[in-house]
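ok so I'm stuck.
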Amino acid sequence: MSHSNPIMNKRILTAGVLALIALAPACTDLTEVPQSAITPENFYRNADEALGGLASVYAQLRSTYDNTYAISEVTTDEIIIPTRGQDWYDNGQWLDLHRQTFTANSPAGLAQINSSWIDLFTGVARANVVLKGIAPNSFTGKTTMVAELRTLRAFYYYMLMDLFGGVPIVCEEEGNALCTGTEIAERPRASRAETFNFIESEL
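replied:
not stuck anymore, here's the structure
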């Protein structure tokens, strides 16, 4: 029966660590040369690629079940979140919603309300990216896909209007007086009536 030699094991371990330290400087150049990249300018060239973009706009609908739904229901008597001690207290955000005491910096304002704004405008942004990407391309079913994207975007705007009233209108279609472009920039807040008119015109 052989026993391992602790001194020998220690020497092997030390030699291994020293080898790693000696080789470590060789791993400092992390420059990558991508062979390809997917951008809105080189994607959405055919129906399959455009369908992938459309799917992302539909996928964003999942987010409306969380924060937007909570704002719509917990602020009424439809849903009551029973807080027992720290259980479901969550920094007081559910009580804040139910009591309708939320402000921009209150627990619900910083959680569900801010997150709902982000979730819904993410849906708008995704629709705009795909609309811009497919605009110069021709493929079977493009007209239907454009209609779907504009309807989905209108639905996100409808939920934004329902929660926040007038909101900035960001869209890609030129010639629409309510569009303020897709570039990332500070933009004016449309009135609730203007937001409604935009939604109605899209549908």
